[in-house]
Predict the 3D structure of the following.
Amino acid sequence: MEERLKLASRAMQAGMLGIAVAGLLTANFTWMPAAVLSLFVSIVPSILRRDLGLVLPIELNFWIVLALFLHVIGGFSGFYDNVPGWDHLTHAMSASLVAALGFVVVVSVDKYVESISLPRPFLAFFIIMFTMAFGVIWELMEFSNDQLTGSRLQSNLNDTMFDMMFDAFGGFIVGIAGAHYLIHTTPEHFVESLKVEKTKEKISGLLEKRARSKGGK
Amino acid sequence: MGEKERVRAGLFSGRRPDQMLEAELSWIASLVLFFSTVYVVLKVDVLWVVFGIAAICLYVLPIVTMRNLFRALPWEMTVLLAAPLLLHISAGARSMNDRFAWWDDLTSLAFALSLATIGFLLTVELEMYTSVRMNRPFAVLFVIMFTLGASGFWEVGEYIDDEVFGSSYLRSNCDAMTTLLWTSIGGILMGLFYAVYLRVMPKKRLSTFGFMHLYEVPKWKRG
């Protein structure tokens, strides 16, 4: 299963690379940069793993690549305009992605910052509100982009509101699933599987090195 | 005077005049909040009913659990809580809305301030009654995020209300986005404001409220 997910991720990254090249050839300068940027973002987890030793769950990694891939291919092939509900699909995907990353961060904070303690129900509530807040920021970005550059990212009220409903939907799913997941594994176990401890050591090592080199000057 | 006699002497004895004034202001504001909520309940204005009941619960909870009428929220917070409800139901506000373009923005801002206040009270009362603990940076983040998220859910709620029950909250996409823009600005400002609010509040005043300091874990900088 893990191998298959990895393979699928690689295939989608290759697809994004292909879209970037195709975008360059067909002079599609709205989606070529988007493809390059998405490709880069999809590589970030691997960079984190190599340089900091932070291991994201393989499913989460797959989800990140899938959301980016759907966004890029939808934009390049015009699915956003032609396929009904494509926009909502990618919204629900990216919202659940944001929620999942928020979950990882908040659980780590809960474990490593002593003055912070977040019981499970509150964690679920936090994730839901966090995802919705992110959705609001996203819509505001689209809105200001439309106002400033005259683009048409938001078509009408119905569309915006459905986007936000799908954001909320993604947040609810991940918030509740995350809280449920922590019943079976303790936060400690979950954080350990991320190898955050090692990352922390590496970061503090880097900071020390930097401080020493500064002190030497 | 012995301890028992002081209790018998009545609820209001032994309070300084300024304490009395503050408590009275808070009670009056809470009554405004209460009756506005009753009004929206009678009107079956579902969203505002939810808002009003949430605000009233946060107001009443410390008073009831500590059985002390003076454990009321600071009056300025109560005013902030009641303001958007009052603006919503008053006919005067509606005519202002027709006359001035900026009135709608002001209402949105007032709404943001009260949402942020609810977020702040949530941090305080969650620490009072549950095992949730936050430090200051996290609490500020929570207040801002809560305001943004709640206003998002609010807009969606208004939209559903429009579609299902035929109300007319949202006129256009631009309308909804302007509201969200104002609530975000208000939320961010209030989040930062509450970070310094308790530090600049005089110690004497803080101690009369008795629980507001629970906003953050004491000495969080050490851990």
Observations:
- Chain A touches chain B at residues 109, 113-119, 122, 126, 128-133, 135-137, 139-140, 143, 154, 156-157, 159-161, 164-165, 167-168 (CB under 8 Å).
- Chain A is about 85% helix and 0% strand.
- Residues 120-149 of chain A form the longest helix (30 residues).
- Chain A has a mean pLDDT of 84.
